[in-house]
Amino acid sequence: MGLLAASGGFTRYRIVGEVNKQALREAPDRLKKYAFVDIDNTADERSFGWTSFEDYLDTEWRGSPPEKGHYLAFALRLDTRRISPAVFKKHLRLAIDHEKEQMKDEGKVFVSKDRKKEIAERVKLSLMSRALPIPAVFEIVWNTIDQVIWLCTTNGKIQELFEDNFTATFEMHLEPQTPAYLAERIVGVEKGLAIEHLEPSQFGG
Predict the structure, then answer these.
(1) What DSSP state is assigned to residue 35?
(2) Closest by alpha carbon to 72, among 56, 90, 50, 89?
(3) Contact 169, 36 (CB under 8 A)
(4) Integer angstrom CA distances of residue 168 from 30, 33, 174
(5) Rounded distance, CA 158 to CA 148, Å?
């Protein structure tokens, strides 16, 4: 885990536009409204939502509140079920072979494309219900004075998921603080545009 580990990658954000102060006051309740929902006893492929910074199993913040002085600390949890393509192929073959055996008794020899699709969906659902979801947790720290947010990952898909869920929860939009964006803020828009055309230097080995 990023902030609780010796090292890690981070993405820094700032709030775009006006800060929704009411949303800040309601932060604990809003986090609970969009909290992670467990899918262990379902066949769902994916689930995501907020959880406690200290304990990713605590989606009610019973152990510790998200408020830490003028900071909010919480985490984004993403559980994903995965089925090995080889496992799916094996069980699909078995299911289709079983279907063909049953069809022989009815005097049929051909499994239609639509029927194969139905069988594939049934096999996938069966395997999903037996597979355990794999949890992943990404910590978040929000400085509510400077309005700077740190997300403990640089993964593009997780960044997008976080940004969308943050906007849905707090009704505010985020802007990643990339090096180019920060440089533009320091030197101005006109000079900042020139930075976009710079190329990295090549150092001889």
Answers:
(1) B
(2) 50
(3) no
(4) 10, 10, 11
(5) 18
Work out the number of other CB atoms within 10 angstroms of the CB of residue 125. 12
β-pairing, 134-143 vs 71-80, is antiparallel
* Domain ranges within the chain, ordered by starting residue: 11-81+132-195, 85-130
Under the banding of pLDDT at 50, 70 and 90, the label for residue 78 is very high
Q: Tabulate helix, strand, coil % of the chain (nearest 5).
A: 40, 20, 40
Tell me the pLDDT tens digit for each residue of 118-160: 999 999 988 988 889 999 999 999 999 999 999 999 999 999 9
Cα–Cα distances (Å) from 46 to 42, 77, 114, 177, 188, in that order, read 10, 11, 26, 29, 42
pLDDT classification of 101: cutoffs 50, 70, 90:
confident
**Residue 148, token pair as written in the block:** 């700077």
Q: pTM for the whole thing?
A: 0.77
Nearest one of 27, 59, 45, 9 to 166, comparing CA atoms: 27
Confirm if 37 and 44 have CB atoms less than 8 A apart.
no
